[in-house]
Design brief:
By secondary structure, the chain is mainly α. Helices cover about 70% and strands about 0% of the residues. It is built from twelve helices and no strands. The two termini are about 25 Å apart.
Length: about 425
């Protein structure tokens, strides 16, 4: 829209677009603080385990995308943008049709009352047919006798000191008690905001920003006086890759262990919960890295690509939209900072369009929110995104073709800068 209505060059319209996207994602994240999970009111509306795996690779991709924006000719940037918009529109339309069918069928059927997850509901998570959990003591006296032998138990249910040796039956019962404590701990953690995960994302954001400040640019000179494109410039640029890749690998291993522990404890996965696979753990971070490149290069939010990825994981559309906006907040902010360092975005323009994006997103949130609450259907969100991307594809295609033909007739250089 900045290119079509504001007549900005594509290379300058993209940083302004990122500033507006930053304002919109900021409002979405603030609004999500006062909303609850559609399937479980006690849980957060943001899928933090997906954020922790996807967002570091996305921020890593922005470092490449920003540099590509500096050297790519405008016709190539426009062509890539059209391809991404067209592909994403088709994929999201297909997903929207699937979600619409499911929700219309569920509206016809009788909806069961939502189950509130409390401490007392933990027992319902334990299958009675499992012989491992059937060894639990059935009376308070039996439990007290085991705890006296056990000595003390920490908050995780782990035995600290055992005063007497256990029999085989008692050992099995103690293991079952420990598993129940661990399951309670997992359920309790799901109702809390994972401060550690958010801090890790912030640390990755600061790492990318710090390395960008070390490199410097026309907007903000290097704090260690490095010249643009010299040897140290590229060494610092490459340093970001092993750091972020190490973080991604560690998170992938942690998610795998956490998921396997849930299965061992017979955790009952609800509709919309993420079930991690080898494909999602290995390929999706790479897709998000590409999404980061496209977001910084083309001025899109990154959620256009990550939104369908979250839907493919089976996440609820409302949760996927909020999670995507939460990730876009970090992606767009770090991209804007890099464009400011490179002199492609000024502070006054950036803050102005952040405010415009915030107010525009507020209007959209009110309208879409009213429709979802009134009709109790979430596929409206998917189809509204499809309509906007379809219109943008058509308008950008027509404008890009006209500008490219005009530039060719004027013998403007069509090669890399």
């Amino acid at each position: 829209m900045f290119h079509l209505l504001g007549q900005f060059p594509v290379s300058l319209a993209i940083p302004l677009s990122k500033a507006a996207i930053l304002g919109g994602s900021l409002l979405t994240v603030l609004a999500s603080l006062f909303q609850s999970h559609p399937g479980d009111p006690s849980r957060s509306l943001v899928a933090y385990e997906a954020v922790l795996l996807f967002e570091p690779s996305t921020m890593l991709g922005t470092t490449v995308g920003v540099l590509c924006n500096l050297v790519f000719p405008e016709w190539l940037t426009m062509l890539l943008l059209l391809l991404v918009l067209a592909f994403t529109t088709v994929r999201m339309s297909q997903k929207g049709v699937q979600v619409m069918r499911k929700e219309l069928i569920s509206c016809i059927k009788r909806k069961p009352a939502p189950i509130e997850v409390t401490e007392k509901s933990v027992d319902k998570q334990i299958p009675t047919g499992d012989p491992h959990f059937n060894t639990l003591p059935h009376t308070d006296e039996e439990t007290q006798g085991l705890l006296e032998k056990l000595g003390t138990i920490d908050s995780m249910g782990t035995p600290v000191i055992a005063s007497k040796p256990f029999t085989i039956e008692e050992s099995t019962s103690v293991n079952a008690i420990q598993d129940v404590y661990r399951l309670k701990h997992i359920l309790r953690d799901e109702r809390r905001t994972p401060i550690g995960s958010i801090l890790l994302i912030v640390i990755c954001w600061l790492i990318v920003l710090g390395l960008s400040l070390l490199r410097g640019g026309p907007g903000i000179t290097s704090i260690i006086n490095i010249q643009s494109c010299d040897m140290w410039y590229w060494i610092i640029f490459a340093l970001c890759f092993p750091i972020i890749i190490f973080v991604i690998g560690s998170v992938a291993i942690a998610n795998t262990c956490y998921h396997r522990e849930k299965i061992r404890l017979h955790y009952q996965f609800k509709k919309g919960d993420i079930v991690w696979t080898v494909k999602s753990l290995l390929l999706y971070p790479f897709y998000c890295w590409v999404a980061g490149i496209m977001a910084a290069l083309l001025g899109i939010g990154g959620g256009i690509i990550k939104g369908p990825l979250l839907l493919d994981l089976g996440i609820d559309p409302i949760v996927a939209n909020t999670t995507s906006s939460f990730m876009v907040l970090f992606t767009s902010s770090i991209t804007c900072m890099q464009y400011i360092i490179l002199g492609r975005l000024s502070w006054d323009y950036g803050l102005w369009f952040v405010c415009i994006g915030f107010l525009s997103s507020l209007l959209g949130q009110l309208v879409i929110g009213c429709l979802v609450r009134r009709f109790r259907i979430s596929f409206i969100i998917i189809f509204s995104m499809c309509i906007m991307m379809g219109l943008a594809t058509l308008l950008m295609g027509a404008s890009g073709t006209y500008n490219t033909v005009t530039a060719f007739q004027k013998q403007v250089s069509m090669f890399f800068r």
